[in-house]
């Protein structure tokens, strides 16, 4: 399956990924090679990785899985382990895991000794189709998502769809939300195909989503303009995800589950402010509610979510900036939303 060329690296899939990894390590004389895993990828993905990788691993580093561990304390432990195990500026860090691990591992590598090489091997559908492209690395600040980080490119990204056999169905659906988003913001035909699909973890869909995101990132690597469209559903979605993460009385939502709600809410805002047709809005809502259970929000929940909007990383000069849809396949950025529409959007979601 054809590789995808990004700015300074390539995303390789399946057999090409295996070949690229071994050729790269053979070519570069790394002083130390570290592998970062969590307890899940160590148990389920490491044996598969070891069958594909021919060279040495000097040290395996393990962190705890889960968004709640994507923080500076975890970074501190990994930095310390790299130092204790003689890591230097000619070391390589291979990140084997989902989006939490590759975001954190990329940030650790980008800051240790002012930057060492890293390779990302995403093991969840979400990390394959989203975190694999764009070079965003980072961690959360308390419950606030992705507040600390840098944009820094890996040496390569390697996609092995067989890792998805180790992932529960709920995680697969979480990644599917981002794939549907790619259709909504860029490609109405892709949306039309995906929304009727059951086998959404097929390799050709993974490749298509990576290619669509890469097309955007190549034009705007540092998110000054066009790249903002990738945040559709994420302004309210991230606030919802953060609220459910910090509230012990709520069941934590996966990223895709929160973003699916965000896309329905921001779809409603698109209808009100940018002329998204009512039938398209209903199509969006019906599609996401077929895949994801409806979440209950009372008035206190909604108030708390809306208070978190002020921390969104797209904000500028005190304004909350939204990405909205003019139509399925066409997004617009930097839209200011009157506060009274937020409650109407939640009311529409709850209908």
TrEMBL record:
<feature type="domain" description="3-dehydroquinate synthase N-terminal">
    <location>
        <begin position="61"/>
        <end position="173"/>
    </location>
</feature>
<dbReference type="GO" id="GO:0046872">
    <property type="term" value="F:metal ion binding"/>
</dbReference>
<keyword id="KW-0479">Metal-binding</keyword>
<comment type="function">
    <text>Catalyzes the conversion of 3-deoxy-D-arabino-heptulosonate 7-phosphate (DAHP) to dehydroquinate (DHQ).</text>
</comment>
<dbReference type="Pfam" id="PF01761">
    <property type="entry name" value="DHQ_synthase"/>
</dbReference>
<dbReference type="GO" id="GO:0000166">
    <property type="term" value="F:nucleotide binding"/>
</dbReference>
<keyword id="KW-0862">Zinc</keyword>
<dbReference type="InterPro" id="IPR030963">
    <property type="entry name" value="DHQ_synth_fam"/>
</dbReference>
<dbReference type="GO" id="GO:0005737">
    <property type="term" value="C:cytoplasm"/>
</dbReference>
<keyword id="KW-0456">Lyase</keyword>
<dbReference type="Pfam" id="PF24621">
    <property type="entry name" value="DHQS_C"/>
</dbReference>
<dbReference type="InterPro" id="IPR056179">
    <property type="entry name" value="DHQS_C"/>
</dbReference>
<dbReference type="InterPro" id="IPR016037">
    <property type="entry name" value="DHQ_synth_AroB"/>
</dbReference>
<dbReference type="InterPro" id="IPR030960">
    <property type="entry name" value="DHQS/DOIS_N"/>
</dbReference>
<keyword id="KW-0547">Nucleotide-binding</keyword>
<keyword id="KW-0520">NAD</keyword>
<dbReference type="GO" id="GO:0009423">
    <property type="term" value="P:chorismate biosynthetic process"/>
</dbReference>
<keyword id="KW-0170">Cobalt</keyword>
<dbReference type="GO" id="GO:0003856">
    <property type="term" value="F:3-dehydroquinate synthase activity"/>
</dbReference>
<dbReference type="GO" id="GO:0009073">
    <property type="term" value="P:aromatic amino acid family biosynthetic process"/>
</dbReference>
<protein>
    <recommendedName>
        <fullName>3-dehydroquinate synthase</fullName>
        <ecNumber>4.2.3.4</ecNumber>
    </recommendedName>
</protein>
<feature type="domain" description="3-dehydroquinate synthase C-terminal">
    <location>
        <begin position="175"/>
        <end position="315"/>
    </location>
</feature>
<dbReference type="InterPro" id="IPR050071">
    <property type="entry name" value="Dehydroquinate_synthase"/>
</dbReference>
């Amino acid at each position: 399956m054809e590789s995808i060329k990004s700015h300074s690296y390539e995303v390789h899939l399946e057999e090409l990924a295996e070949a690229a990894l071994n050729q790269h390590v053979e070519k570069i004389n790394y002083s130390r090679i570290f592998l970062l895993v969590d307890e899940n990828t160590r148990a389920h993905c490491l044996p598969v990785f070891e069958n594909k990788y021919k060279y040495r691993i000097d040290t395996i580093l393990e962190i705890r899985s889960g968004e709640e561990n994507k923080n500076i304390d975890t970074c501190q432990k990994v930095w310390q382990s790299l130092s204790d195990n003689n890591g230097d500026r000619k070391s390589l860090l291979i990140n084997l895991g989902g989006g939490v691990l590759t975001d954190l591992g990329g940030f650790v590598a980008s800051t240790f000794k002012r930057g060492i090489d890293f390779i990302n091997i995403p093991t969840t559908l979400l990390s394959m189709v989203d975190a694999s492209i764009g070079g965003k690395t980072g961690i959360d600040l308390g419950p606030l998502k992705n507040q600390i980080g840098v944009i820094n490119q890996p040496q390569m990204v390697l996609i092995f769809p067989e890792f998805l056999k180790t992932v529960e169905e709920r995680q697969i659906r979480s990644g599917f939300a981002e794939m549907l988003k790619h259709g909504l913001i860029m490609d109405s035909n892709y949306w039309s195909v995906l929304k009727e699909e059951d086998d959404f973890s097929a390799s050709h869909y993974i490749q298509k989503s990576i290619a669509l995101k890469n097309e955007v990132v190549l034009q705007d690597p540092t998110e000054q303009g066009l790249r903002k469209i990738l945040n559709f559903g994420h302004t309210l979605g991230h606030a919802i995800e953060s609220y459910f993460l910090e509230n012990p009385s709520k069941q934590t939502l996966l990223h895709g589950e929160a973003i699916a709600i965000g896309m329905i809410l921001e779809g409603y805002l698109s209808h009100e402010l940018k002329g998204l047709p009512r039938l398209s809005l209903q199509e969006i809502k019906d599609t996401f509610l077929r895949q994801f259970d409806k979440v209950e929000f009372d008035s206190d929940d909604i108030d708390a979510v809306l208070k978190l909007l002020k921390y969104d990383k797209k904000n500028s000069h005190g304004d909350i900036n939204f990405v909205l849809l003019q139509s399925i396949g066409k997004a617009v950025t930097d839209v200011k939303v009157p506060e009274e529409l937020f409650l109407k959007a939640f009311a529409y979601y709850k209908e």
